[in-house]
Specification:
Layout: H1 3-21, E1 24-31, H2 43-47, H3 51-54, E2 65-72, H4 76-84, E3 90-94, H5 95-107, E4 112-121, E5 128-132, E6 147-150, H6 155-166, E7 176-179, H7 182-190, E8 196-199, H8 203-209, E9 213-218, E10 226-233, H9 234-239, H10 241-260, H11 262-273, H12 277-284, H13 298-313, H14 323-326, H15 330-338, H16 343-347, E11 373-377, E12 384-386, H17 389-401, E13 406-412, E14 419-421, E15 426-429, E16 435-438, H18 441-451, E17 454-457, H19 458-471
Parallel strand pairs: 1-2, 1-3, 6-7, 6-8
Antiparallel strand pairs: 3-10, 4-10, 5-8, 5-9, 11-12, 11-13, 13-14, 15-16, 15-17
Helix pairs in contact: 4-5, 5-13, 10-11, 10-15, 11-12, 17-19
Length: 473
């Protein structure tokens, strides 16, 4: 055989061997699409095809073939089952299910790693308690002796137990706590089969937005952190650390996109998840109920420890976890560095998603963030911002007069700063030209007592402004 032909044959043979040896690497991810604060760690990465952009292609990955798989779940428990069974490599879930994930892996003689926070609240917003719309209950104190449903072993279950304890109640005697998934709780609330329901993101806001429930307790009142984050099989992470970092870089890009255009991506998440865009904006928009924060703040680490202890008390976990080995921040630190971000700066940053806006009526910059209000008109791509609740409701009256439909009106709680659906809020009217919003009627009454004014619901606040406008004509 001539030398050129020999070299050609050798080259072809070597390429065939290389092709045969090219590794097919699975990247199997479990998402929770309806748990909308997981969106930057699942739904958006999938829908925007961001993962392919960051998967490694050099070194040992030069000839790798990636088999990217996605599977959606409505809760963390079945997702964990499939991770432990080796069917999934990554999973997104809350603090309590995440802790159960670590326990389940340990029982199976394996390990999982909690590698990043996605979204949360160091104060506890996101979890909440709702009652049927016509219920007389205005606060948790009104639920003594009542039946409260909650998804057992969820982050909302932990919140409920802490809130009951703070009331000085015995959870075995003073209330009846029953297990109920959110998809069942909706109909139970509508048929008055339960007195109240405690749940995680987004159901304490979604049910009121759909008109059959009222929120009477926000998780921040329990002052206990809550979050959702990402987990990975430890063996997978040790074998493919560059893929773990790549996945987190894709999540970081998803976060950047949401921060830049929250309305646009709220609409996309809504289209996929079935959760209404205005509810998604309540969480992901500026000053939202939760903050997208990928850093392992001390409060979130402590939350994992608390969840493990609570799960043991509930007899849902019978073993401890080595939290220093379970919570691993080296991958997210590397992802931050490769994305040109300062992890240490984010770790020290406790600010909510920022709002830099001008009043839609006056054009003046908005500075008092506890007085901010917003309107999202149906059919409009952007939310309108206002410096005060009275400014927003005056604008709303004009929009309604013009026949424009409203998707949502938002206000910030005057005491806590948490974001509210304004039509579910209580207002204190200090004269015809000032309104302050509150989640709880008792807080509104206390404000009126110390600052003067009248307590009104949303309709009453609108009527007061309308009367004042008519009197000034």
């Amino acid at each position: 055989m001539r030398l050129p032909h020999l070299l050609f044959s050798l080259s072809v043979g070597l390429s065939m061997i290389g092709a045969a040896q090219a590794e097919t690497i699975r990247v199997a991810v479990g998402t929770q699409d309806t748990t909308i604060n997981c969106a930057t760690g699942g739904l958006l990465i999938r829908e925007l095809d961001l993962l392919k952009k960051y998967l490694p292609r050099k070194g040992k990955y030069k000839d790798a073939v990636y088999d990217i798989q996605w599977k959606n779940f409505t809760s963390g428990a079945p997702l964990t089952n499939e991770m432990v069974a080796g069917k999934l490599d990554f999973g997104a879930m809350a603090d309590f299910p995440g802790s159960l994930n670590g326990v389940a892996f340990k029982k199976a003689g394996k390990r999982s790693l909690f590698i990043s926070v996605l979204s949360g609240s160091v104060k506890g917003s996101g979890n909440g308690i709702v009652v049927p719309t016509e219920s007389s209950a205005q606060s948790l104190a009104d639920l003594k002796g009542k039946t409260i449903s909650v998804p057992f072993a969820s982050t909302a279950h932990g919140m409920l137990l802490r809130a009951v304890k703070a009331q000085g109640w015995d959870p075995e005697k003073d209330v009846q706590i029953i297990s109920q998934a959110p998809e069942v709780a909706g109909s139970a609330l509508q048929s008055n089969k339960v007195d109240a329901h405690a749940d995680f993101v987004p159901f304490a806001e979604l049910f009121p937005a759909r008109g059959f429930a009222r929120k009477i307790f926000d998780g921040s009142q329990a002052d206990t952190p809550t979050f959702h984050g990402l987990l990975v099989d430890a063996d997978y992470a040790e074998k493919y650390p560059e893929i773990v970092v790549a996945y987190l870089k894709a999540a970081i890009e998803a976060n950047r996109l949401v921060a830049a255009e929250p309305e646009k991506y709220s609409e996309l998440i809504a289209k996929v998840s079935g959760i209404e865009a205005p509810v998604i904006y309540l969480f992901h928009g500026p000053l939202g109920l939760q903050t997208r924060d990928f850093s392992w703040k001390p409060e979130y680490r402590k939350d994992v420890a608390t969840s493990v202890e609570t799960l043991k008390l509930l007899k849902r976990a019978d073993t401890d976890l080595d939290l220093d080995a379970f919570i691993v921040d080296k991958y997210i630190r590397q992802a931050f560095a490769e994305s040109g971000l300062d992890y240490s700066a984010q770790l020290a940053n406790y600010s909510p998603s920022p709002l830099k806006a001008k009043d839609a009526t006056t054009g003046a910059p908005i500075s008092d963030l506890k007085r901010v209000a917003q309107i999202w008109l149906k059919g409009e791509p952007l939310v309108r911002h206002y410096a005060s609740p009275e400014a927003a409701l005056k604008a709303l009256l004009s929009f309604e007069k013009a026949g424009k439909s409203t998707g949502a009106v938002y206000a910030q709680d005057r005491n806590t700063g948490i974001k509210l659906l304004a039509d579910q809020a209580w207002f204190v009217a200090n004269g015809p030209e000032e309104l302050n919003a509150f989640l709880l009627k008792s807080d509104a009454e206390a404000w009126a007592q110390s600052h003067g004014g009248e307590v009104k619901d949303f309709a009453g606040a609108k009527a007061a402004l309308q009367s004042a406008r008519a009197a000034n004509r």
